[in-house]
Amino acid sequence: PPEETRQTSLERQIDNALSMNYEQVRDLFYRLDNLHNGTINSNELRSIIEDFIEYTLKPDEYYQLLKKIPTDDNGKIKYKEYLKQVLDRTLYLQEQEQQEQQQKLPKKSQSELLKRTTNQQKQNIEELKQKREERQYQLNENFNSNINNDDQLRTRSID
After folding, report:
1. φ and ψ of 58, to 5 deg
2. I need a labelling partner for 81 at 20 to 30 A (CA). Which of 11, 32, 42, 99 fits?
3. Dihedral angle sign, alpha carbons of residues 123, 2, 137, 26
4. In the beta sheet, which residues pair with residue 78?
């Protein structure tokens, strides 16, 4: 698998907990983002993760996790990018698991498995895809909004 999808079981547990509670986690991050610049500090992230997985991370566990999390030049967590990573990894792993299950069965059983794939699994994958698309749309909107604001500032300074 690609490097970014290789994970420890703890990382998978964190990704699953955060992706299944995506809206709540996103809202918490947003509320903690006092400057509204898309970042939070690492202690805030740690607190949220520990609350959702109901486990206190050991310092070395958290340090290993932090190495894979996007940060800005000041070391603040870019939570929007982090959430996108979480959703992408979760979706990728769910799709991989589904493919592996299908490949393990004889042809006849594969078609039966396809029929039996639970609606919940399909729904989870669709929800994650939709969240990823919504996230991408929001990022594009924010980017376009920032460009428009920059253009307006430049226009004002010329006038």
Report:
1. -75, 155
2. 99
3. positive
4. 39
Its sign, for the CA torsion 66, 69, 75, 77, is negative
Identity at 8, one-letter amino acid code: T
CB burial of residue 90 (10 Å; 0-12, 13-18, 19+): buried
- In whole angstroms, what is the distance from residue 120 CA to residue 140 CA? 30
Token digits of residue 12: 């998978």
In what helix (H) or strand (E) does residue 78 lie, and over which residues does it extend?
A: strand 77-78
Residue type for position 86 = V
Report CA Rg, the chain. 19
Handedness of CA 113, 84, 18, 5 (dihedral sign): positive
Residue 102 makes CB contacts below 8 A (sequence gap 6+) with 110, 113, 114
| Whole-number pLDDT of residue 138 | 77
Out of 20-24, 56-60, 110-114, 122-126, least confident range:
110-114
Domains of the chain listed by start with CATH number: 3-158 (1.10.238.10)
Which tens digits make up the pLDDT trace of 58-95? 999 999 999 999 999 999 999 999 999 999 998 888 88
Which residues, including other chains, have CB under 8 Å from residue 104's CB and lie 6 or more apart?
none
Taking phi over 0 as left and psi of -120 to 50 as alpha, with beta for the rest, 41 belongs to beta
